[in-house]
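Exercise 3.2. Students should predict the tertiary structure of the chain below and write it as structure tokens, then compare their answer with the key that follows.

Predict this chain's 3D structure.
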Amino acid sequence: MTLVFRWLFRIFATLVFLAGAAGLLAYYLAAGSLPDYNERHSAAGLEAELEIVRDNANVPHIFGTSDADSYFGLGYVHAQDRLWQMTLLRRTAQGRLSELFGTRTLQTDEFMRRLDVYGLARRSVEAQDAYTQAALEAYARGVNARIARVNSAALGRGAPEFFLFSPEIAPWTPTDSIAVAKVMGVRLSAHLSREVRRARASLLLSNERLADLMPDVVGDGIAALPEFTGLFEKHPRRATQEPAIGGHFLSPVPEIGLEHASNAWAASPARAAKDGSLLATDPHLALGAPTVWYLARLQLADGDVIGGTIPGMPAVVIGRSDQLGWGLTNSYLDDQDVFIERVNPDNPEEYLTPDGMKPFSTRQSIVQVAGSQPVTLTLRWTENGPVLPGTFYGLDSVTPKGHVTSVGWTLLSPNDTTLTAAMSLMRAGSIDAAVAAAEAHIAPSQNLILADAERVGMKLIGAMPRRDIRHQSQGRIPAPGWVLENRWRGRLSYTENPGFLDPDGGIVGNTNNKMIDRPFPRHVSFAWGDSQRVQRLERLMGSREVHTRESFIEAQLDTVSPTARVLLPLVGRDLFFTTEAAPEGSPARQRQIALDLLADWNGEMNEHLPEPLIYAAWMRALQDRLIRDEIPVVADDFSRLEPLFIERVFRDIDGAAAWCDVLQSAPVETCTDISRAALDDAILWISETYSAALESLRWGDAHEARHDHPVLGTAPVLKWIVNIRQSTSGGDNTLMRGATSGGEDPFANVHAAGYRAVYDFADPDSSVFVIATGQSGHALSRHYDDLAELWRRGEYIPMSLDPNLARAAAVGVTVLTPE
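Answer key:
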């Protein structure tokens, strides 16, 4: 027995030793790619000596003697800290993810190749102005200089992920930067999925009930639309539950309800406590580790700029100079249309156009798949745009037999000058110059919020499709592509883009809310990203005669839900303070406790409170009961709270209270009955998931921010190293927005402000900013998550252009000399 024990101990000790040795070897290999920020060496492609000063938050301050050298430096630091992220973005654009990840990413690759994102980016290089082309070339030289340095000095392949996947890195090119910009445009797309969702719901609902579920934001009405099935001789199949392309591994397409959101507002000196404008901006994107944003400062001939960049692009996308600050919000411009194309029954290679049958534009594309056979795709385009398979977005559920679907999209321009607009905006010294520079912006459409020392303004930027006033669906649902009136007729003039300069009230802002009400076809959109947050912004901006940097920060971090303040009195009006005493521990008693807590709550979605969780679970259960009873097939399309729908039902607008009656039961249920039953559902779910002690609940336990590594975030052991998880306040409809997943863990915070900034032009160097994770994409770096805790607590770091402040306590200085 003793001998057996000894041998078992020896085997165990050997395994522990081998595991430890393997861990040490893995650490040694991974640590080799940690960049040294204190170095001096030569690099090919530079014109003169280049200095990169890293401040104590690891923000690089790039001092080049020419603009080209500064862009070279930006490419170099991006590759130092985010080489894997850049490679992944490029492979996404190219449709080459499956070469690394096998069949898991095959559908994502197919989608990107069908859009021809990379091919369009290649064709757009020549469309850029001379300055931008030179900047693209210089940036690419900087990226390639870092790659060459990694190879020559054996610096751990540049990023630890390259030890797990192919270490081959192709040289960076200008096409790659434009392709990255287009991938970001795909991430911000929304209308295609909304069109399909509306069409799917319309197959199951009357026009009246569809108006409840997907109502127009308050404003002047529009003419009634035809029923979707009335547009086609053969009706589409009944709606079925289909996965959207956005649900696939590494897909850039956002899930429904998580398309995009942002906040930005500005106050003129007349509304500021000091003699200078103020601007706050916080764009919202899907959370990840690292975040998509990277902070940097560039020394340029027209004036230094500092702000948020996106690795892969040579531009400060959102930031400020000494003269001008700019923020971005998503405009929700309807820049996508789905077309139903009729295929020639006698020749499947042809489709119907207003001029008769024409052949599809067709070419073959081969996708290499790791661990599997290559897949050959037949890519088809129509005059309206690329043809998408019915498996994407659930398109086959709304496509009649004998037809296919194509998509028209401003992003699919072969002459996309959006990057030229970004480069010109950085060098604009005034609001008028910035508005003029933004005319070159094509897609994705944004609201550009501007402030200089004396003025503020907002301009919608991006190409607005020119639609015919006789368009059969007005772009709200898929329309026949062979009908001339449904086709785009180029783009509207830039002068048609709404703009608001020097507002009388001195404050301009946007939370993705409806900004203007114009009749079709000069409208901006029928679907908007926000009807709730703007109410809170109006209150906070109007509650003070003058504002300060601190009041703007307070608004940016505000966690009060106007939605909760509106819905709770409606949904619970017959339940609050009306129930009789109930035994402790009984369902009725639990309901009383929940109602008592909510009755005294002010709607603040604070991470330490129980009320936000009770409220969120109640509204989720209520909406699910209402929708799943009527249209169970597509109920999962509406997994996140639709506030206007709940409000319409409980106010019984146009008979919307009909949703409360359960179709499968004989009695006629009231909205009070459904509300009570939904609260019981919510309490039961909370008890099973968290605790039956409602007073001890914490919203932050459910509303955990999930900055997950897109590739290694689910890998055993590694996920504990690469993922960043945080308890957070806020919610779907608060200014400090933390959009919930709506999935198996329904209240996880998965979509929030990855970048926050407040610019103060009374004292520009007192401006502040922060990102959601850290500057480095290397999980072993102390700068991988050092800004994450500041972000969680609502703190910032200085956003200064003072070189002396950058050098004070700098973490490193890199000097590059011409080779």
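Discussion points: The first strand starts at residue 39 and ends at 43. Residues 2-31 form the longest helix (30 residues).
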